[in-house]
Amino acid sequence: MLLKLSRVLNLFSPDRAELSVRDIAKPFKWPKSTAYRILSRIQAIGFLDRDERTGLYRLGIRLAIYGELARHSTSLQRIVAPVLHRLSATTSETATLMLLNGQEGVTVDVVESFQPLMLPGLLGGRMPLHATAGGKALLAWASPSRLETLLRPPFERFTQTTITDPTELMRELEKSRKRGYTIVNGEHVDNVVGVGVPIHDHQGGVPAALTVAGPRQRATAKLEMMAAAAAVAAAAVSATLGYGAHSTPDGGSDGAVGRRGLGAKRATAGFRRVASGQPKVVSPAPPRPRSRPAR
User: What angle do CA 64, 65, 69 make, to 5 degrees?
Assistant: First the structure.
């Protein structure tokens, strides 16, 4: 029954919020009588609701309650929550946490700006990796093998500035690694600009990214400040997750940061000026391994 429950719930998505009995029965080749029986059981425990007028099923309120509990109990989100609030307060813009889910990014936590123009509706949204600041950060700091599986052209065009050429996108990701943060320039939503920085776990992987974004007319002039604040925030989260404590057998990290311009051995966080005059975010130094007591 648990397997059937999982399969049914996985059919729902933001684009398919309501499903008929036929919609649910068809993928599993269930007779309608079987589908009705299974759906009735799921409805009885509160995981599905049925609209009496249309007969369509939707996710039940009980799942929303569990989802809210999970949101507060998940370790990464509990760690990031206060950081997001500080980041939004520092920049006066919307701060988000994006996780990698398959070949998409999912915004799992949002602290909205209190400015007159905000970016509502981000929580729970599935975001294209190639056209968002957080998605680009997940790509830019992915391991080479991971990157190969994530980059699957053709890339959808959302606005006039969306990067759809694979070669151009790779150049953009390389610039981001050297710069230390990604930039989105109205590539998913017109008039929205922002920055993204990676969060590293204890194995050097990049399971998530922090972003800060706002309307073009307000955020463009402070992109450097936003990137610096996001870098400090991400470094704090990464340190809490134990980043730098473990290495891969080749001496690098799975996130490939050490091989790509933001090496884990660079010493200071925040911005430093380079010869070109452009700002560059550098990663904090990882904690030194503790010496083992002699036996």
Answer: 115
Residues 122 and 244 placed together within one structural domain of the fold:
yes
Which CATH number do you get for residue 112?
A: 3.30.450.40
Check pLDDT > 90 for residue 25. Answer: yes
Q: Which tens digits make up the pLDDT trace of 56-92? A: 999 998 887 777 666 655 688 889 999 999 999 999 9
Please tell me the total number of residues recorded for the chain in this structure: 295
- In-domain check, residue 235: yes
| Residues 6 or more apart whose Cβ sits within 8 Å of residue 33 | none
The pairing of beta strand 182-185 with beta strand 94-101 = unpaired
Token pair in block for residue 21: 């009995």
Note the pLDDT tens digit of each residue in 204-246: 899 999 999 999 999 999 999 999 999 999 999 999 988 865 4
Strands 192-199 and 208-215, by their bridges, are: antiparallel
Domain that holds residue 49: 12-65
pTM (2 d.p.)? 0.63
